Amino acid sequence: MDYLQALEYIHGAKKFPKTGLERFEHFLELIGNPHKKLKFVHVAGTNGKGSVCAMLSSVLSQAGYKTGLFISPFIVRFNERISINQNNIPDETLARLCEYIVPFNRQNAQDGYGELAEFEINTAIAFLYFLEEKCDIVILETGMGGRLDATNVQDPLMSVITLIDFDHMAILGNTIEKIAFEKCGIIKNNTPVVLYPLQSEDAFSVVKKISEQRNSPLFTADISSLSDCTSGKDGSDFIYKGKSYRINMPGKHQIYNAITAIEVLEKINGFETSYNVIKCGLEKAYFPARLEKLSDNPPVYFDGAHNISGANMLFENITSIFPEKEIILVLGVLSEKGIGMFEKLIKHARTVITVSPDSYRAMSSEDALRDTLKFNKNAKSFKIVSDGLIYAEKEANRFKNPLIIATGSLYLASDVKNYYSCK
Question: What is the pTM of this model?
Fold first, then answer.
């Protein structure tokens, strides 16, 4: 099996509903339970979990620990899902491990459990790779929810829950309490929990209750110990507990993600990190598609905002970091999400260009345009993302102080980033 055949096998797997972990647990037994021989920090949440994972991975790598990182989704290449010390899994290794699991996957079906879903295959390959490479620790991001997520088969050193908000309601529930309950599925008995500091009362009460039921110490980053915050287009500086830090991820919400990561690093047992290591690791941390600059002339940023809280954060960041800019918005969304959550940003933009993300779930650019026109009459649609970006650049020439923002779905990221990397 070569790399392309491995990807075909992975992407050809079914997308099973989250009905339980039995199928995946039985499969893991067949391959020797690699997850039971690794140490994990498990991260769930609606927004920010990828950034927190990247920060933790960067700091622990800086401290000299061999650190695995499992995230989803990927932005440009599949291999981004699985990395060690910021180096993605090699193509040949991915293909070899994928080929290795095929007969076990068939055996799983013959045993009556069924073949693995796509995300389960991804997780299994990651476990095998991290064990093979003798990782000291693995930062493990949930795919969706937590309670029934394939990553929730291990007992972590610590559980981390980032911002809880509305997303994937058809699967996770239509109230904050229900969504929080699913996220809290990663909380294990007698295992510390670190919680992102800015939570709704409803979300916090659920996390607090479940932590108490499971005798799991609950820690939250201390907002009162945060001061001197300055955020700009190239990142943020802040002081936390009397010590200064810098992150190169724009947006004030990334400061809250950073102090969440600091709390994890201060509380986790067996993995010591000094202030200088944390400071350096946070500054080096990088996570793509989060208000990521792609071009200077004209200025272009991509942000993977794809839910209500993400859209609101993006609007707040744009209006605070780029208050004088004339916004050209390139918007591509999934059909089940729609464009409603971007109403404020659409109204704020000088021009809106709707495109179709690369997904079978995409809302067509024409349908997105129809809904966009309710909020902004200066709008146009393009089926092909690159055509929309070409038009956006032409529009930028009309304005004195333009800024192109591409957003709406992470499924846009690959096309947008590839367009600017080839220029």
Answer: 0.95
